[in-house]
TrEMBL record:
PANTHER family, A to Z: MAGNESIUM-CHELATASE SUBUNIT CHLD (PTHR42759:SF1), MOXR FAMILY PROTEIN (PTHR42759)
InterPro entries, per database record: ATPase_dyneun-rel_AAA, CbbQ/NirQ/NorQ/GpvN, CobS_N_dom, P-loop_NTPase
Domain of life: Bacteria
SUPFAM superfamilies linked to this entry: P-loop containing nucleoside triphosphate hydrolases
Example GO molecular function: ATP binding
One matching Pfam family: CobS_N
Lineage summary: Bacteria, Pseudomonadati, Pseudomonadota, Gammaproteobacteria, Vibrionales
Protein name stated in the entry: Cobalamin biosynthesis protein CobS
Domain Cobaltochelatase subunit CobS N-terminal: 6-36
Length: 326
């Protein structure tokens, strides 16, 4: 499928579109196509990370967004692209993604009743030749052979050689490259991100911008949860969500101190709030949303976090309704 427009044809105000106090204007497309992500009107942008991503789009800077899980790294890039109408393709670098998936391979097809062998482009050559923002998700989990393929397009000129085709691909003028990672290529130091790799420093050095997106202050996190669960936009709902976010912050502090090995991300807080709508019981929803994912030996510590924030024993509160708890 081809992209509808080959070049950005308008400029947008960062102040008007993203609510950041700057006079910066960035190129954008006036026409949306199937590759442009859907706009999430409730999404809240982190100003520093947003400016880093916009620099990637406007100035062709290779931009990586690093941070803990559940902070919305990939979504952040997609939502910037959505507001610029910039076509976007997202690839997860899991252990099953191979070099052939990225580069391409010969395939057998039927043409005029005859079997013929044709080269099918992988995602890298396809994206390079189009005005596309290519996002590599879980960048620090990629296999070494895959990472060395990617390293070719991190060079300044970004040319890509298809050896099997004896062809050199020149990047499209508005091709853009982004990545998200839980670590900065240093491996699984915390024990939280199994499967991440220690990356070649020469490759990390080729990324022009590395932005960090971590957990937000409580009031900002409250606004994000309210945007997803607007039914809680009441006095009692605010009180309940603040209690839930307080539990989440205790798990994060406990993880940082080495007391527990699992923490609550903003995504989990949203899931907890959504499950409260279903079950009408914050304690039961907490168990189903988070506690059951934790190590059994650590559950008493996490139950204590709940007790501190809700002033109730976790086991004794299963029968309480959401209204009574709030």
């Amino acid at each position: 499928m081809e992209i509808a427009v080959s070049q950005p044809d308008i400029e947008v105000s960062v102040r008007d579109v993203f609510g950041i106090d700057t006079d910066l204007r960035v190129p954008a497309f006036s026409v949306r196509d199937d590759h442009v992500p859907d706009i999430d009107p409730a999404y809240r942008f982190n100003p520093e990370v947003t400016l880093a991503i916009l620099a990637g789009f406007a100035q062709d800077r290779r931009t990586m967004v690093q941070g803990m899980h559940g902070t919305g790294k990939s979504t952040h890039i997609e939502q910037v692209a959505a507001r610029l109408n910039w076509p976007c393709v997202r690839v997860n670098l899991d252990g099953h993604l191979s070099r052939l998936d990225l580069v391409g391979k010969d395939t057998i097809t039927l043409r005029n009743g005859q079997q013929v062998t044709e080269f099918q482009e992988g995602i890298i050559p396809w994206s390079l030749q189009r005005p596309v923002a290519l996002i590599f998700d879980e960048y620090d989990a990629g296999r070494p052979d895959v990472m060395f393929v990617i390293q070719r397009i991190l060079e300044r000129d970004g040319k890509f050689t298809l050896l099997d085709q004896n062809r050199v691909i020149q990047p499209h003028p508005v091709f853009r490259l982004f990545a998200t990672a839980n670590t900065v290529g240093l491996g699984n130091l915390s024990g939280l991100y199994h499967g991440t790799q220690v990356l070649n420093h020469a490759q990390i050095d080729r990324w022009n911008i590395v932005a960090t997106l971590n957990y937000l202050p409580a009031e900002e996190e409250l606004a994000i949860v309210l945007a997803r669960v607007p039914e809680k936009n009441t006095e009692s709902g605010h009180r309940l969500l603040r209690q839930m976010i307080a539990v989440a912050e205790l798990t994060r502090n406990g993880f940082a101190a080495g007391d527990i090995s699992t923490l609550m991300s903003p995504r989990t807080v949203i899931t907890w709030a959504e499950n409260c709508k279903i079950f009408g019981n914050p304690a039961l929803s907490f168990k189903l949303s988070f506690l059951n994912k934790c190590d059994e030996l650590e559950r008493p510590v996490i139950a204590e976090y709940f007790q501190r924030c809700f002033d109730q024993e976790l086991d004794a509160s299963w029968a309480l309704s959401e209204e009574r708890t709030a």
